[in-house]
Amino acid sequence: MAKPKESDKKKVLNTVVLWSCSGFFFILCGYGLYRQHCLEQRVLVLEEQFKEFTRTVQSQQPQHQELALRRETRDAGDCICPAG
Asked: What residue ranges are annotated as transmembrane (predicted)?
């Protein structure tokens, strides 16, 4: 039997490393998308709670009317807040 050449072993190792890195980054990107989705859902819930709160306050004080606060939908990558 012929011995596998050293270059064949390196090719296999390089392929394994490449696929491992690709899989890791695929999982990492999926986790980032999951966190972004969860964050967007939390923001929507907070906005609904805030709207309900402002309706309650405005119903108690009808003479006081301000412009409604609005938030533009942004991509999570646009946020410059520190992590955590």
From this structure: 12-34
Neighbours of 71 (CB within 10 A): 8
pTM of the predicted model as reported, rounded to 2 decimal places: 0.54
d(CA 75, CA 73): 7
CA distance 57 to 63: 11
Domain ranges of the chain: 32-57
pLDDT in tens, the chain (84 residues): 456 677 888 999 999 999 999 999 999 999 999 999 999 999 999 999 999 998 888 777 655 445 555 666 766 666 677 766
The residue among 39, 34, 21, 47 whose CA lies nearest residue 83 is 39
